[in-house]
């Protein structure tokens, strides 16, 4: 009988998503008696999820990541502010050094336009960089971190099957970097994390790649195609849902109803982004369950009223250790709430769920 594969699919979520997912991995280690987060048959990572998945597929434990994450997200770490917010100076230097060529290109686009305003817009596009930031330093730091922790940078050398999701810019197609389509691991992860316009596209073998999340924050279908029948999905991005009612504000005047719109455009953008991403994820899961009823999909994510995560800017570095510990609690709470069903599903895959899970606040 063929072994029933289990897959871990890690969604995007920025800096917050990385540490949240590490916390959830610790919870899996706590809840599963005879398996760990390193024992999945295959890993699928998108954007921030690819950062964590690469370490797990190489055999680096969640506990080990828990120990070195402070250093990796420190000022000069591979996932720290300097690497994450490294400005796109190289493209600006290129355009400056070769300014006659740049000027000719801009002039040509202006002259070819039928309307002056359209021409000015196209000329400005030629002069502007393709992204505010660059993943170059991130790639260098990731390469060093991989060497330090024994990961290497080749898909073929990883202990488990890893699939990193990116989007090819010139076609808009989803691209999967893996053992069948290998590239340097640090480039694959950087490409998967390259949010369009914020980051310069990552050029690999003559092609440009950007954030894999453009084609869905979690590629569950890929895990199904690889033969997985149990898929654990971890997602940190959920829209905030105010569970109070207008009547609550009248009854409890000291706790008035708060509106996201009152907090300004950044809060609105954050909510819209989360709502769009989460809606796509839920629809994707429904489609998978409808097309493959024999596949079990377990979604671990924070509740919509989560005060710590649901309204947080997912690219901030504030209180990362608290976020990781919160991810652990969310993970443990998932196994506690779904214990009966999960125990039966896991048992079919020869995974034993702990009978006593730690209490969470």
Give the % helix: 40-55%
Number of helices: 14
Largest sheet: 8 strands, mixed
Beta-strand content estimate: 5-15%
Helix and strand sequence: EHEHHHHHHEHEEHEEEHEHHEHH
What ranges have pLDDT less than 50 throughout 5 or more consecutive residues? none
Name the assembly state.
Answer: single chain
- On the 0 to 100 scale, the average pLDDT is 89
How far do the termini sit from each other?
43 Å
SS elements, strand count = 10
Identify the overall geometry: globular
Overview of the structural elements:
There is one protein chain. The protein is of the alpha/beta class. It has 14 helices and 10 strands. The strands form 2 sheets. Strands 1, 2, 4, 5, 7, 8, 9 and 10 form an 8-stranded mixed β-sheet that branches. It has a two-stranded parallel ribbon with strand order 3-6. α1 (14-31) links the parallel β1 (5-10) and β2. The model has no long low-confidence stretch (mean pLDDT 89).
